Every structure is written in structure tokens, then in C-alpha cells.
Amino acid sequence: MTRATTWTNADGLVVGNGGNYPERVVAGVAEVDGGQKEARLYLDLKEYAVGAAATVAIPVGSIVKNVYLKVSETATSGGAATLAVGDGTLTWITAAQGAVANIVANTPIQALGTAAYTATEGALPPTVYAAGATLTVTVGTAVFTAGKATLVVEYV
Predict the structure, then answer these.
(1) What's the rounded Cα separation, in Å, for the pair 93 and 111?
(2) Where do the domains of the chain lie, and which CATH numbers do they carry?
(3) 80-105: per-residue pLDDT in tens?
(4) 64-90 burial: b if 16+ Cβ within 10 Å, else e
(5) DSSP three-state, residue 146
(6) Residue (of 77, 64, 75) closest to 109 by Cα position
């Protein structure tokens, strides 16, 4: 919680003055079933410049099972904006998938990049991050003028 100002009394208690408003949580991890976890990162696409990135930390020893983008507001751009998700080596959501024309409200974007498991790949194993990793969402080509989405990363 945030306060406009705070002070500490003689007993060490921090006392807040002003409105007490909840902070805007833009990322979080929740345990959804047994040991399975789900990291979510809220993205307001117009907040990011070309080349700008947002990240999701993947803990050491995690196995990423699925990555997708849940779109809540259709994206727009004055140019050909793109969004890609990867770890620096492998790609989860490609720039072609994340093209402005594909980011449409209530239409999820399922990862189809080199690290993603798809029906056409047969028994491709999930990606194991033995040393941990950071998944990065990168804006390319042009800026977005609108669009909101949540990146969801499922892992164990």
C-alpha cells in the first residue's frame, strides 16, 4: 500500500498520512495446481518504445510448459509495430505472431516460436531452464498507440 507521506514515531511504528491506495500490480506468480506455477505480466503496449522490453524471471530448474498472450484491448500503431517474446536464445512468441494486426481483443496468441510446443512437433519436450532465465517481451519496428495484454508463462 502506498501513502502520500509517512513518519516514524518514538516506538519505531511507521505512520502514514494521506490516501491509502493499493499499488498497481503489473506482474506476479501464482501456484495454480500442485507444483505448477503461472507467471503473469500485464502489458500496456503504448507504454513501450521500439526496442523497449519487459521481463518475466524464470527460476533456476524450472520447466516452461506454455507461453501465451491474453489480449484484452486491440493494438493499434502508426506503423508496423511488433511484439516478440524470447529468452535471448529461443523464441516463444515470434514478431510475426505479435504483429499489430494479430493483437486483437479476446483473441489469445499461443506461442509458436522455436521453444514452443505445438501439435506439429510431436513429442518435443518442454523447455528446461537449468540455470534460470529471463523471458523478454520486446517491441520492434514501430511503437504501439494502443493495446493491452497479459503475458502468461506456465511452468513447474
Answers:
(1) 5
(2) 24-155 (2.60.120)
(3) 999 999 988 888 999 999 999 999 99
(4) beebbbbbebbbebeeebbbbbbbeeb
(5) strand
(6) 75
